[in-house]
Amino acid sequence: MGSGGCASPRARETYPRAVEYFQRNLTVRTRAVPPGQELPDLLESLPEGVSPDTDPVCWIRNGSGLVGWGEAARVETSGGERFVEADERWRELVAGMDVDDEVGLPGTGPVAFTSIAFADDPGSSVLIVPEVVIGQRAGVRWITTIGGGRREVREAPPAAAPGTVRYSDGNFPATRYGQAVAEAVHRMRESESLDKVVLAHDLLATTSEPLRGRYLLDNLTRRYPDCWTFAVDGLVGATPELLLRRAGDEVNSRVLAGTAWPRDGRPQHQLVTELIDSAKNRGEHTHAVRSLARELEPFCKELDVPSTPEVLRLRNVLHLASDVSGRLDPALVENGEAGLLRLTRAVHPTAAVGGTPTARAIELIDELEEMDRGRYSGPVGWQDAEGNGEFGIALRCARITEDADGGSRARLFAGCGVVADSDPDTEVAEAEAKMLPVREALEGLR
């Protein structure tokens, strides 16, 4: 990542010191579920509750993916070397495991769910190895137990609603966010040293009853099945953006930048045309794709970068999207330098969440954003013992914590790419549209 962090000292969160615990010589068993055996859907397999033993981890898209619970191991890292430290601890842990994997697919055997802080400082990143993982892909269902995890899977009752939801300003509310956007636009118009900066703000939701992560997951997967719905250590959301997928020597990414959303009664076909024809959005998208390709290219023997984007249609917004694919250098795969965490370290932050040029954009984020992003807009996903896995960008999400009054607090985030011809009011409205999925999920819409 470029120099500097993204957090203002006016509104930093307090993080625990970096910690780790390993259960040494863990026993890992993966077994296929026999065809025809009735099992609940992945999310319905998750136990109910909010204790650390049952707080879920999740990565699902269109009904396929991984869910898990319990903690057989946990690693927390921070700072500029957080990717490398997490990768080294993961390799150390895997090296001491006794693995019996009868399925042999990406996502079987040992799996770690990971959520990385956006900034070098001060955010805490986390890697969690669940005690139980249930996976499903291409018609194959499996169960992995790690350490003392139990294999019994029962259909859980529906997640309880969180009661009344009330909203209030976060650390960096929309009014000040609009002012920051105006200042960024002024800076870019006065100087040619910055092409784009991505600025974000937050919103606080308080619930009268405890908010379960599974409640949000249930609602998000039903309304946004084409997104990657995730949960890691209290960060829950549904991201439309795949940062990196690695399977053997193949690597893929879905880059999103450039946005339109329903407003003024415009039909969708008109919004699509306006998005494609918008010089601002096309330029923003070009910066994001070039940023990703430039950092990924040194790891690849082949890299396919589309010349024109497509339009991704979601309930709340439309995005310009480009699917980048490549084939990794076999030598780097062999020596471990092309594992998913190492690749992610090279490409984060892309122009889609930081800006262009990266170092200058991060400096401006640090100056103008009056909050700490934490793990919002950082990489989130899973990896296995072979370095395969999927990381999305933690967008359309909320960080859930307990509230002193017996309910919960959910901190929602949204951001927009700002360029020299951005309009502050429009960027505020765009951010509001991007918060809609989590707000709907909090309010029980499916």
From TrEMBL:
Its EC number is 5.4.4.2. Pfam families: Chorismate_bind (PF00425). The keyword Isomerase applies. InterPro entries: ADC_synthase, Chorismate_C, IsoChor_synthase. It catalyses: chorismate = isochorismate. Keywords: Isomerase. Residues 175-434 form the Chorismate-utilising enzyme C-terminal domain. GO terms for molecular function: isochorismate synthase activity. Belongs to the isochorismate synthase family. This is isochorismate synthase.
